[in-house]
Design a protein that fits this description.
Helix content is 33%, strand content 17%. The protein is of the alpha/beta class. Strand 1 (25-28) and strand 2 form a beta hairpin.
Length: 278
């Protein structure tokens, strides 16, 4: 998919520097790319946080896809006021996994970035994710525990649980992750053709991390800093969600790749539009 920036006038000869400049979208003074970048933001009652989230997003991104999980506040209205070109997907199912799958299906960019709507992620870090992908990675995985990363929002029990589950995944699947349960990630859209996404909850992040490794995709961790949620209360439950993540890990170890491909649920296809898009 081309994202060349076409000149506004035609019938005019351009110098070589002008021709080259017209083919690239500038990110920084040292980096320019052609792939369009889509940012997927699952949101439910996050109207107070969206101004902070949208403000941190780089100007050069191709599109923002907001997946609204049937908010009872003015999340959608705030999103459209902040960014008139935002693409809103009305979620038909429930859960973060379902929201992400719906958002992926609505993306038109070559690169897809997953960003939470609570203000815990710094949108300016997207350049690091894109750089990793343009540099050769298939999947750029955010890590709060890689050198340069950090977190302001993790209790001791959650830190211990994340470490234990991460160690289990590394041992069972040959991964080299330093962080597992973190939702700030990015990948080339073609990765969706190589993995099956068939869960609806918070454990979708672990499922993606496991299946990109099983698919043989090239993974690069990107140091990321997680901040405190700005407004509202998180739906995360360390024990409940930790058990769901563990079940995913154990299930993935038992299911052969060929058998999983045969039982792909049609309702979770990322190539089929899910929910009303506006």
């Amino acid at each position: 998919m081309s994202s060349f920036l076409r000149p506004a006038v035609t019938g005019q000869e351009f110098t070589e520097p002008s021709r080259i400049a017209a083919q690239y979208r500038a990110i920084t003074s040292h980096l320019a790319i052609t792939p369009p970048v889509s940012v997927v933001i699952p949101a439910m009652n996050e109207a107070e946080n969206l101004p902070y989230v949208f403000k941190s997003l780089p100007e050069w991104i191709h599109e923002v896809v907001l997946v609204d999980g049937n908010s009872t506040d003015n999340t959608v209205e705030v999103a459209r006021e902040l960014r008139p070109d935002v693409k809103v997907v009305k979620q038909v199912g429930k859960g973060k996994g379902d929201a992400l799958i719906s958002g992926f299906a609505a993306c038109t960019g070559d690169i897809i970035v997953m960003v939470d709507a609570d203000g815990s992620a710094d949108g300016q870090e997207i350049v690091s994710y894109v750089s990793a992908l343009v540099g050769g990675a298939d999947f750029a995985k955010g890590s709060r525990f890689a050198n340069g990363g950090g977190t302001d929002d993790m209790t001791g029990i959650r830190r211990l649980g994340n470490w234990a589950l991460c160690a289990l995944v590394n041992r069972k699947f040959g991964a080299r992750y330093t962080d597992l349960c973190y939702g700030y990630n990015a990948f080339w859209r073609h990765c969706l053709d190589k993995i099956v996404l068939d869960c609806t909850g918070f454990e979708i992040e672990t499922l993606i991390n496991i299946r990109v490794v099983k698919a043989g995709l090239k993974v690069q961790e990107v140091p990321s800093h997680e901040y405190l949620r700005i407004h509202g209360v998180s739906n995360l439950n360390a024990v409940r969600d930790g058990i769901r993540v563990l079940k995913v890990i154990l299930r993935e170890k038992r299911v052969p790749k060929a058998a999983r491909a045969l039982r792909r649920p049609a309702g979770f296809s990322v190539n089929v539009p899910r929910g009303e898009v506006s």
